[in-house]
């Protein structure tokens, strides 16, 4: 592609468009168009022997205008994007290290031979991707490494500023290109950012950067090396100049591409022509096959009959399959009946199991009610025991008083006895010795009998007291034993419940759903497998979707939510009935309830209290919004308040807060309604924990409590054994006292009788002897005794009355004990009934499991039969559907498929005989005709498409070649105009002659004196060295106008110029540079004393080489 117009402020695109060249209307193009209008030869665009005086006038005016612009300080266009900021080499060619920082506009690099001028240009071209051979400095890259070094480095800094910068966010303001050359000839690239960070190591990235900035490093016109410059200035021919013109403007590359396209179009045309030759043969074969196929249609009648039999064969097979389906369905129906029978049996046994479970629950409820009803009896018994104790204390006080009276009576009697002794002594003095002896004997006998009687009475009283003590002790021990029996039964019941509780916790540890029932995991699995749900799949148990945010309220939450935790929610009553049946089947109907509710996620915020209150709703986290709504409806959890302190709860409820219906404390207390003040202690939840995920602490706590219960039971059993032993000891003692009582009574009666008898005899012989004083003393003592007896009688009556009351109290206690015994017997009966029902239920469960196994087997048999019937039905339906596609007319036939196949075979044999006559089967002929017609049609379509594509490509190529010729014409005209302009700057007349047919570019120059004398133009060979160099420089400047490149490099372009021509050439180059935005790097071995550095001119003087 041509390189496009010269850069004007920003780099142009690499592609060359016609509009770009047409819009480049400078004074040089207008002049060239004028010259071109006088040329009659299309190939020789300028007749270099004809000149127009007006041209000199126009050129002089243009020169004056340019000078006026320079004097008036017209700003010079500078576009730094894509320019070379620095070239740096290490161990490159003969230089150990060399670095040059270039300016954005005009750069002169001067120095003696060997100072590194050409090395800079070579490094620039090598770093930007050129080959070593293109520099004429070596055959390969390794030859560019300095002698004695193993590697060389060439680094180029490309300015990356302005709106046309390349990936400025990645590279920054400078793109650093490094190419390392190793001794083995292998080179590597590194593309770095301004911060020296490696961005890429790929050659493709470098090519993209050069394309972006239109850097043509291999263009001989933009990068003219030293050898190329010498050859160009000294010995280049017209053909070489023309080739240089085409290569520099990239017209040669575009021309080569068009030639390649032309070859491809010719090849395509040849292929199309070769394929067109086969079309008649294809058409002929298609017509022959079609004619042959028409002949074969005459045998279509046999095929029609075969089709009819095939239709009958297909439907006969379907009819056979339908009969097989009916038999399979009958087997499935029979299996279904057996499944129903098994289901009914399972339902009957399941109902009995549920009834047993309900009976157990009812009895357990009665046991709980019994424990609750026992509380008043215990209070009454405690009260009676307290009365009994008070009565016993009073009885002991009375007995103590009576013993004291007995002691006083005994003392009085002893004093009477002493008085009697005194009286006897007095009487003895008066009586005879016989009487005295007999009386003394009687008195001694009476005294002895009295002592024996009194001792017997004391023994009787002691026996009575001890007997009463034994009775009291035995009653007390009996009451204690009864209490111990009740406590032992209660502990055994608690032990049984604790063992069940531990088992449920262990089951929950394996599966947390076990907290809702032992069979809950199996129920949930069955719910997942069930497919008959009309609405959403049941949700539950509800508690499995809850978790507590505040663990201190877990116990009271269990009480508040109660059985709601184990409930399920469904949408339809059909699903409710199905789920209830499943609950019964898994023995969970007693603990779980099915709630039917529409799936409605209503807004409940209007019913909540102030944010300052912690409600049950706010204390819980929900995994299911439907569950939350059901608890709101059923339990008012959004209006139930939770508090830790009861007093604070009373205060809150006394204020009647809005949207609060109930209040509970963490200690499981309910604070009364909106009026407060009343507090009710609730029964704690005794089941397995449902809010806690980790049940290990509960298991350890339950095992500890079980150990405590067992220890307490052992202690009670030991205490019971001790009391029983003590009771037996008191019974033995009471029996001994009972055996002694009759003998004591006999002794008292006997001694009393003998005393009365002897006292009578004594009175008969008694004679008053003047013992009045002693008699009066006796009378006093006897009166004292009578008083004491009266007091004793009063105390005895009180004791008797107290004994009656005591006996009544004992009777009442005994009645309560008997009631307790009866109730305890009821409790034992309840427990025995539970055990009996448990045994029956276990038997029923065993039977139920067997029936379920049988039911599962029957269901499996039914499912197999049903699946087989469905499979056969699906097969039959599939056959029917396939048959309807090919044989839609059903045939009701009784013929077997085998008989129909025999008929078909006979017709096929007849058809084969017919086909032998034709040489092929009807299908083969039909397929051949179809294939040939399709081949001919496809070939014709493809050739038409290829022919159309070929014409389009050819027309496009013709247009592109025309555009290419226009590009060449415009560029040549521009070059001719600019060449004449630059030659006029020296006072010479110059012209370019393009011969596009012969591919020649000739330079014709008339020097100043010749031009004034009107002599003919000279060619370049007849010019002097300076004139030749100046004309070649003018040619370069003219050709540069058709090239877009941000960098232009010339090496030793002034080698053959004298000082005057060099000065003029330099000025012309600088003027040309000032007219565009490209960067110029000019290398010269000459002195630069006439070059003045400035903001746009940079002079780089290289140091002399080190010759040591």
From TrEMBL:
Domain RecF/RecN/SMC N-terminal, first and last residues per copy: 84-1086
Biased composition (Polar residues): 461-470
Protein keywords: ATP-binding, Chromosome, Coiled coil, DNA damage, DNA recombination, DNA repair, Nucleotide-binding, Nucleus
Pfam (any one): SMC_N
Record localization: Chromosome; Nucleus
Keyword Hydrolase: no
Bias (Basic and acidic residues) ranges: 18-33
Ranges for region Disordered: 1-74, 452-474
PANTHER family membership: STRUCTURAL MAINTENANCE OF CHROMOSOMES 5,6 SMC5, SMC6, STRUCTURAL MAINTENANCE OF CHROMOSOMES PROTEIN 6
Protein name: RecF/RecN/SMC
